[in-house]
Amino acid sequence: MSLGPLMLDIAGETLSDEDRDILQHPLVGGVILFSRNYASIEQLHELVLTIHALRTPQLLVTVDHEGGRVQRFHEGFTRLPAVAHFGRIHDKEPQKARKLARTAGWLMAVELRAQDIDFSFAPVLDVDHGLSEIIGDRAFHHDPTVVIKLAHAYVEGMHEAGMAATGKHFPGHGGVEADSHLAIPVDNREYNDIYAKDVLVFKRMIHHGLAAVMPAHVIYEKIDPQPAGFSPFWLREVLRTRLGFQGVIFSDDLSMEGANIAGRCYADRAHAALDAGCDMVLICNNRTGLIEVIESLGKWDDPVSHLRLARMHGRNKVDARQLLASKKWKQAVALMQHYQDDSSLDLEF
After folding, report:
1. Is 181 tagged catalytic?
2. Is 60 exceeded by the pLDDT of residue 343?
3. What single DSSP character describes residue 223?
4. Which of 252, 253, 271, 313 is catalytic?
5. 3-class SS at 8?
6. How confident is the model over 26-76, as pLDDT tens digits?
7. Cβ-contact 262, 188 below 8 angstroms
8. Shortest CA distance to 132 belongs to which of 69, 168, 176, 167?
9. Are 4 and 29 in contact, with CB atoms under 8 Å apart?
10. From 181, 268, 302, 306, active-site residue
């Protein structure tokens, strides 16, 4: 059985009978975890192992674990700073900022890999235009060239830990004020402006080996009437053809308000996203909508997507006890905890 095009959530800290049945459906390919799914390190690890044991190849298990405001697991995990802090350090000490970003990417990824989680939806590659509160300090910087340098370092850290990176939110969410969780943001900039500032980051990161991309639920009205995640122009023409991207395209959550324009029903949204070029669509916090999509897709099959998705499995088995005993982990944790108070901290380790 190959990985299907649907990623879903679960309600609790263990799998229900309904969860088990749905997760074994051939159209399902992954599970995204939230804070409600976490009680302890031991419980989380058991949950992930249970999910992985259901299928061959294993279902993908992921989480939004960026740091700052977006970190689903806390107790037992290092509290990570928002990446905008690295951007501010870069303004004065570029080399130190890049080392710090790489350390943060490694630490985030290795702690998740120690619990057998395949990947985190990170990093945010949006350019901070000073408009978007939902992006805000989730973005590295307002200068695309700085975003590229810091994101590259962050992704190098992730790769070292055995985790593939997902850049979001293509072609850039930072140029709109509205939150796509609650509204349908509209960006009225011209294509050349978006390409020169926001798309440039994705172009360079693809060159640096970016494994996956998540498009924005944003309408770029002077270019296409559909949000990017439902737009063949943005996904097939720009991302695949012009930028040459060969990795996975994940939709953002189809339950968000920004997805409503693609269809009031979940089946319409899922079909629109997959037809536009997404390899996998996320449906969270609406089990009825998920079942509706499963029933509507029939025997959806895309061998190329299967191959792309398989590359998102985590690599480099990480033993949690050995990790916590390692000098490298202890130094990385200390750095994340104290660097804001003392910019003279030694980053050489």
Report:
1. yes
2. no
3. T
4. 252
5. strand
6. 999 999 999 999 999 999 999 999 999 999 999 999 999 998 999 999 999
7. no
8. 176
9. yes
10. 181
